[in-house]
Amino acid sequence: MNPRRKKRLIMTSGILTGFALATGLVLYALSQNIDLFYTPTEIVEGKGSDKQLPEVGQRLRVGGLVVPGSVRREGSGLSVSFSLIDVGPAVVTVEYEGILPDLFREGQGIVAQGTLVGANRIQASQVLARHDEEYMPPALAEALKGIQHVPPSQWQLEEGEDLPVNPFARDDEDQGSSGGSYDR
Amino acid sequence: MWRWLHPYAKSEATFALNQKLLPWFLIPGLVLTIVGVIWGLAYAPPDYQQGESYRIIFVHVPSAIWSMGFYVSMAIAGLIALVWQIRTAELALLAIAPVGAVLTFISLFTGAVWGQPMWGTWWVWDARLTSQLILLFLYLGVMALYVAFEDERAGGKAASILALVGVINIPIIHYSVYWWNTLHQQSTITKVITRFESPSIAPEMLWPLLVNIFAMMALAGALVIMRLNNELLRREVHRPWAQAILNQEKKENQNAV
After folding, report:
1. Which CATH number fits domain B22-42+52-223: 1.20.120, 3.40.50, 3.40.1350, 2.60.40?
2. B108: distance to nearest CA of chain A, Å?
3. Average pLDDT for residues B220-227, to the nearest whole number?
4. Which residues pair with A81 in a beta bridge?
5. What's the pTM?
6. CB neighbour list of residue A150: distance below 8 Å, 6 or more residues apart
7. Confidence of residue B64 (pLDDT cuts 50, 70, 90)
8. In Å, how far is B202's CA from the nearest CA of chain A?
């Protein structure tokens, strides 16, 4: 490599390294602000190294898993409340009036946007489903994880009735044969 | 060590190499696209919770992967253009940019169309979506910068620098879903390479997805090759080698008629 090319190569790498460092520092400084949502633990115990608690009345997003058995519908309207949890014991209750996304389910990850009305209560104006990175056919999901997904639009209102039939469940197939080698 | 690079500074050598490479991209690209789309859309099983809507993965994931892949190749062309001052590398950069921009747009558009029924929103300013939008702006910036200068070599240099600097965004896009809380799910198959984890997708969905990923690569690669050759011919239309090729094509066309 001749000296002029070498010089240019060193200069370009220098510029690139400089920009990478600058971007890295900016992102590090902003790291907490880039998060889309608070986790329930962060709302109860505080976020970041200085454990800053969100204030009551603050607009925020919270993301976590819907605690199984916590989904309550009030009357026959659209009002619904449920609890969110992440890793710890901290639980946050979300109250929402509106249409839930199709992926909503107990145990599913969701992100709710709204106002903090109590220490761990949120009045949500929008509920988004947070899909995970796993894809599998319905039969396999039932065999592997015992999940039979029913979109909220097909929930039945009366308590005590059987769950509606999942349109995607294929009972006629041998569940073990489809993708038995699937490695979770 | 870098000697092999030098012949391709000559336009005719690059043109000849491209002519040889083109069928190896174009034919597999077309065949795999047809196979992959039919396999993915008609024969792969539905997802346990998304139902049929998940099938957008067969377009979304390949375009998203190669929007980043082509950006890296564009940045490499930019590096070669800056350090070796090879003009064909500048033209390669110019050939890749619009193709990559279209791939980025496809990934953003299909993501939004999928996000509306699945997440409940078309768009959210989380780290993954925002960084991918920045990638689109980087592509557009490279294209705009190239033509913004009166002196073409100056434009090529500026575009190369932007392409090279923007490469920092690529790891940010990939790791955004691990570094920060995002609405976008984490990676399903690229984590095989970057995190040494097995893919979290059932094999009967994984195979058509892989076919579509290779199809997108080959098809977009063929587009880049054709664009680069057009550009080479256009720039050097008065040079003897280009004249020879054009005359030969003219003769073939006349014979065909």
Report:
1. 1.20.120
2. 17
3. 96
4. A72, A95
5. 0.84
6. A105, A163, A164, A166
7. very high
8. 5
